[in-house]
From TrEMBL:
Reaction(s) this enzyme catalyzes, per UniProt: H(+)(in) = H(+)(out)
Chief subcellular location: mitochondrion
Location in the cell: Mitochondrion inner membrane
Protein name in the entry: ATP synthase subunit a
Subunit and interaction comment: Component of the ATP synthase complex composed at least of ATP5F1A/subunit alpha, ATP5F1B/subunit beta, ATP5MC1/subunit c (homooctomer), MT-ATP6/subunit a, MT-ATP8/subunit 8, ATP5ME/subunit e, ATP5MF/subunit f, ATP5MG/subunit g, ATP5MK/subunit k, ATP5MJ/subunit j, ATP5F1C/subunit gamma, ATP5F1D/subunit delta, ATP5F1E/subunit epsilon, ATP5PF/subunit F6, ATP5PB/subunit b, ATP5PD/subunit d, ATP5PO/subunit OSCP.
Length: 227
């Protein structure tokens, strides 16, 4: 029984071929493509408004030098948002519950921000490893601690996103299983669990949006430290 709860996190396959790539690319097909018409429809207007809103929120903590990353960060935000929300639908697979995928997104972008800082301002980037005014006997220990906290950042990004989405999916499956099991024997308790399930689903929609925003926001803060 416990194994069936985790079956939803296994990557789908057809004839031994993994389908995770299709599940990653499918959300992009839902976005309407822009054309050259002067008069756009309401869906395109809503899409442009949402993209401008996301871009403005992500670029607020960044200087003008960091605005070059607007396309990458906004695309990543919309990509994670669509995958997280579509993963809440029944009989769907959520690629962001896979730690390998989240690390594959977090590590290269974190490394890019780190290399940007080392290239543009190496002294300031290395200065983050040793706070100003540190006593001399504590310098080796603080350098080791700060280096460890710097290297663990991509792991923390990936684990945070994976853990939050995995916990939410498990809770939804557990409560939905209890609702269907109790429906025939204790309908009133089943109704209460269904109410809890409904509230939990609303909470998970908020968590899916917040986690996508937090993932990209932390990357933008890491970028700000290095520019």
């Amino acid at each position: 029984m416990n194994l069936s709860f985790f079956d939803q996190f296994s990557s789908p396959s057809l004839l031994g071929i993994p389908l995770i790539l299709i599940s990653m690319l499918f959300p992009a097909l839902l976005l309407p493509s822009l054309d050259n018409r002067w008069i756009t429809n309401r869906l395109s207007t809503l899409q442009l408004w949402f993209i401008n809103l996301v871009t403005k929120q992500l670029m607020m903590p960044l200087d003008k030098k960091g605005h070059k990353w607007a396309l990458i960060l906004t695309s990543l935000m919309i990509f994670l948002l669509l995958i997280n929300l579509l993963g809440l639908l029944p009989y769907t697979f959520t690629p962001t519950t896979q730690l390998s995928m989240n690390l594959a997104l977090a590590f290269p972008l974190w490394l890019a921000t780190l290399l940007t800082g080392l290239r543009n301002q190496p002294s300031a980037s290395l200065g983050h490893l040793l706070p100003e005014g540190t006593p001399t006997p504590l310098i080796p220990a603080l350098i080791l601690i700060e280096t460890t906290s710097l290297l663990i950042r991509p792991l923390a990004l990936g684990v945070r996103l994976t853990a939050n989405l995995t916990a939410g999916h498990l809770l939804i499956q557990l409560i939905s299983t209890a609702t269907t099991t109790l429906f025939s024997t204790m309908p009133m308790i089943s109704l209460l669990t269904f109410l809890v399930l409904f509230l939990l689903t609303i909470l998970e929609v908020a968590v899916a949006m917040i986690q996508a925003y937090v993932f990209v926001l932390l990357l933008s803060l890491y970028l700000q430290e290095n520019i």
